[in-house]
Every structure is written in structure tokens, then in C-alpha cells.
Design goal:
The chain is of the alpha+beta class and 463 residues long. It is built from 16 helices and 19 strands. It is globular.
Length: 463
């Protein structure tokens, strides 16, 4: 859209049958009923007013502020998130609360006073919360997401994800201090489109086509030729298997980085492929259930850090917008984190359904009879794994790719970077400026400064 507004045409090639990537909204039919679901819960948050204005211009009254209600389920008990002081104290009990405080003082002494280095994610969260609290939720949940021990997770993950959070900021919020500002994770309202987050991208798509640009879904590049300095040709296979060759001025691409390298002709040098070979992705499996029931819980989403529970998060789309399902009914979304080689990634929907139902029946959420349809969705390359080597490996790959002048690799999969929607949108905007202005911007400044990525106010709508 940014290019189109300036009179420059583009062609979008999308492998999936629908645009929007991980932030698309799926329409699921069940008889006469239609249910809408995002791929996992998507709240919109940004420090960038331009993005709020941009989306409001696309969606108008569909762009709505939603109160946040989220909880964690730990050791058989629910905890509101952001935490509430009295509830947490009551659930945890006096002795554990005391241990949390003592551990926190110990950690601050070690990491603050004696400057113990923070070399891993584990160091970072222990330094900011003390070991007892870190293990209670963050370490378990992160290990569930990444599938590796917290001591092998790069501290970049903590810097991006929970920067600005520490025992004090959580406590201040819990006792009602802090207001709207403060760490992103603690913000208690967010914007959400009436008919799902994917509406943002559907509208962008409509604008593009209306303005004479092309979008080809169910199509993918099969070869990307270059001369070492420039991308020269891209062969694209469409849904019928026909291959067409394009000679673009610029290629902006978001194919998972490790896969993109294998499309290049000639291939990158062996040391670049070797470096990329050690970059890993975490995949996700999602079970979507439509229910003959008014509601399950009041939550947008619930985290499940305990490892004896196989899924990591559940969400109820109706609590984002009542228009996500037919009146009087609801739906439930269950997320699993996995490597593609893990058994859950090859299970059938019946097997995954049988795996989760005992939990929901035990908690009184819903019975099998109340489930009217079951849908299994799988996605590879969802989370770039920030292990302790990732930054060195990524650096080698980027150094080489950056030598190709008219290539701009963007987004979560393209840059092997844990971005949210706002960061991916900003990368797209910067990519268009690079093309229009004929200069380079450092796309990694987006979301890299702790301040920028994690903190900031919720902007109000323009008047
Ligand atoms: C469970 C979950 C919850 C999330 N929650 C939030 C949230 O609350 N708030 C938030 O802001 N963000 C959230 N996100 C993140 C958000 O979805 C992503 O940041 C955003 O979608 C990334 O956009 P992208 O364009 O960078 O990458 P993607 O969404 O991955 O898009 C990449 C696109 O490239 C296409 N592609 C890949 N390979 C090829 C190929 N070979 N040929 C052609 N096309 C190809 C893909 O099909 C896809 O359409 C969440 C993500 C997940 C998975």
C-alpha cells in the first residue's frame, strides 16, 4: 500500500490460499454457522501512532478497544495476569511468598550488586524476579515455547519479551500503581478488529488490487536467480503448476530465512548454508473447537506453563469480539508448541482432540457432546529459536544476504526475528521507503531497542 500510494506497482506472491500470514483470520463453516478465528490470540499494540492511524483508516468503526482479561493456570490454580496482589498472595501462601522475596533480594545482590553476568534467558529472569518466581511461571512457559532449557535460551528473548518487567513493576501494577504506561505485557486493554485481526490484511489486499496491483495466492517462488549483487529473475509456480518468470526491480520477501537460501540460484557459499543449517524453528499445532455453548471462560486467553499439561495456551475468540461466532455459541482455540519432528506434529485431529478433552472435562469447560466440530491446523516455522548460537549464525547469513542490493528480506520468518504484527508492518513500511528513497534502513532497529519494543502507551483514536 505504501508503494502503491506513491504510484509504484507491486506483485504479491503468497503460498497460502489466503493473505495475512500468521495474522490471518480463518473462516470456519459448521453447517449454516460461520466461526471466525485468528491463529492464536492477536492483540494489537504499538508505540507507533502512524500504525494506529493507518489501521483506523482501513477499518473505521471495526477497529475497537477491547479490555484485556488473561490468566495463568499454575499448579491447579488460576492467577490473573497482570497479577493481583491479594489473589496471588492467597494462592501462593505466606511461606512461598516469603521465599519469593528472599530469592529476589538474593538475585538482586548477585546480579545487581556483584554484577553477575546475564548470559542466558534463565540468568535474565532470575536476576529480575528471583529464582522461585522465575521458575513458577516464566521459565516453564518459555521452555514450553522453545523446547530447550532456559539456560540454553539467548537473553535476547528476555530483552524483547519481558523487558521492563521485574518483580517491582509487577508488584506496582498489582497494587494499582503505574497507570496505562509501563511494560507492554502489563497493558490491560488493546485494539482488535471486530471481525478478526486478519481484517487488517484483507483490507490492505483490497486496496492493492483496486489500485491495479496483483496478488497471486496459492503461488510460490521456485527459483530466485541473482548475479551476486542483484536479484535478476524469480520463477513463480502458480496453483496449476505453471511457472512464470518475473524480473523485479526489487524483491521484498518473507519466506522463512533458512528456506529462502535454498531458492537462490546460484546457491549461497557453503559457510552461509552451514551457518543457516543450525538455525531452528519451532512449529505450532492448533486445535479449534466450535461449541454448542454460550461461553467457556471470560478470558481472552489463558497460559498453561506447567509441563504436565501438553498445550501452552487456550483462547476464546468471542471474548475479543462477540462477532467471531454465531449468537449463543462460542469456540475454543488450543495451542501446542513443537518441533516438526515431535509426535504431536504428526497426530490426527482425533488424536489431538482425545489428548485435550480430559483436561477440559475435568475443569468443567465443556463436554464432548457440546463440541460441534473439530479442526486441526499446523504451521511450520512459527517461532525462530533464540538459542545461544543463533545471533552468530544469523549474523553470517545476513552479512551475505545484505550484499544483494535489491533484496529486502522482512518479517518474522524472513528475518528470523520474533516480531509482532506492528513490527512486521513497520518493516513493510521501511522496505517501501528503501525502494522509494533508494537508500537502506536498518530493519533490525525495529523492535530492537528495549524501550521501543516493550513499553508505550495505548494510543487513543484520533478525533
Ligand atoms: C499464536 C500466535 C499469537 C500471536 N499473537 C500476537 C499478538 O497478540 N499480537 C501481535 O501483534 N502479533 C502476534 N503474533 C505475531 C504475528 O502473527 C506476526 O508477527 C505476524 O503475522 C508476522 O507477519 P510476517 O508478515 O512477518 O510473517 P508471517 O505472518 O509468517 O507471513 C509470512 C507470509 O509469507 C508466506 N510465505 C512463506 N513462505 C512462502 C513461500 N515459499 N512462497 C510464498 N509465500 C510464502 C506465508 O504464507 C505468509 O503469508 C502472534 C503469532 C502467533 C503464531
Amino acid at each position: 500500500m505504501e508503494l502503491s500510494r506513491k504510484g509504484r506497482n507491486s506483485i504479491v506472491i503468497e503460498k497460502d490460499g489466503q493473505i495475512g500470514g500468521l495474522a490471518k483470520t480463518l473462516r470456519i463453516k459448521n453447517g449454516d454457522d460461520e466461526y471466525l478465528t485468528d491463529i492464536g490470540p492477536h492483540r494489537f499494540f504499538s508505540k507507533n501512532q502512524y500504525l494506529y492511524d493507518f489501521i483506523e483508516d482501513l477499518l473505521h468503526e471495526e477497529w475497537r478497544l477491547v479490555p484485556r482479561q488473561t490468566r495463568q493456570f499454575i499448579d491447579g490454580k488460576f492467577y490473573d495476569y497482570p497479577v493481583k496482589a491479594m489473589q496471588t498472595f492467597k494462592n501462593i501462601g505466606f511461606w512461598k511468598s516469603l521465599r519469593i522475596m528472599i530469592d529476589y533480594v538474593r538475585a538482586r545482590t548477585a546480579y545487581g550488586l556483584f554484577k553477575k553476568p546475564m548470559e542466558t534467558f534463565e540468568d535474565y529472569v532470575v536476576a529480575n524476579f528471583g529464582r522461585t518466581l522465575a521458575e513458577f511461571s516464566m521459565i516453564n512457559y518459555s521452555e514450553k515455547i522453545w523446547g530447550i532449557p532456559a539456560a540454553q535460551i539467548h537473553p535476547d528473548w528476555a530483552r524483547q519479551r519481558i523487558s521492563g518487567l521485574n518483580l517491582w513493576s509487577v508488584f506496582a501494577k498489582a497494587i494499582g500503581l503505574g497507570g496505562k504506561k509501563g511494560p507492554k505485557s502489563l497493558v490491560d486493554q488493546f485494539y482488535y478488529p471486530q471481525f478478526g485481526t486478519g481484517r487488517i490484511y484483507e483490507e490492505i489486499g483490497k486496496h492493492l488490487v483496486d489500485e491495479g496491483n496483483e496478488i497471486h495466492v496459492a503461488s510460490e517462488p521456485v527459483a530466485v536467480r541473482h548475479d551476486g549483487k542483484r536479484i535478476t529473475e524469480v520463477d513463480v509456480k502458480d496453483k496449476d503448476g505453471n511457472v512464470r518468470t518475473y524480473r523485479p526491480d526489487h524483491l521484498v520477501e518473507s519466506v522463512p530465512l533458512t528456506r529462502f537460501l535454498h531458492l537462490l540460484d546460484p546457491p549461497p557459499p557453503p559457510e552461509v548454508l552451514e551457518a543457516a543449517g543450525g538455525l531452528k524453528w519451532r512449529a505450532q499445532v492448533y486445535l479449534f473447537l466450535t461449541l454448542e455453548k454460550e461461553t467457556v471462560t471470560p478470558d481472552n486467553w489463558i497460559y498453561f506453563p506447567n509441563k504436565d499439561i501438553p498445550f501452552g495456551r487456550t483462547s476464546e475468540m468471542k471474548n475479543f469480539s462477540k462477532d467471531m461466532c454465531p449468537p449463543g455459541k462460542t469456540s475454543f482455540f488450543v495451542e501446542f508448541f513443537a518441533f516438526e519432528e515431535e509426535p504431536i506434529y504428526s497426530m490426527s485431529k482425533e488424536e489431538v482432540f482425545d489428548l485435550v478433552m480430559p483436561y477440559f472435562e475435568e475443569w468443567g469447560y465443556f463436554t464432548r457432546d457440546e463440541v460441534s466440530s473439530v479442526h486441526l491446523i499446523k504451521r511450520p516455522c512459527v517461532y525462530p529459536v533464540y538459542d545461544l548460537e543463533y545471533d552468530v549464525r544469523l549474523g553470517k547469513v545476513r552479512d551475505w544476504l545484505d550484499g544483494i542490493e535489491n533484496l529486502i528480506y522482512v518479517g518474522r520468518p524472513g528475518r528470523f526475528r520474533y516480531t509482532n504484527q506492528d513490527h512486521s508492518l513497520e518493516m513493510g513500511i521501511l522496505a517501501s521507503r528503501m525502494i522509494l528513497e533508494g537508500r537502506k534502513y536498518d530493519l533490525d532497529t525495529i523492535g530492537s531497542e528495549n524501550e521501543y519494543f516493550e513499553k508505550g502507551p495505548i494510543y487513543e483514536k484520533r478525533i
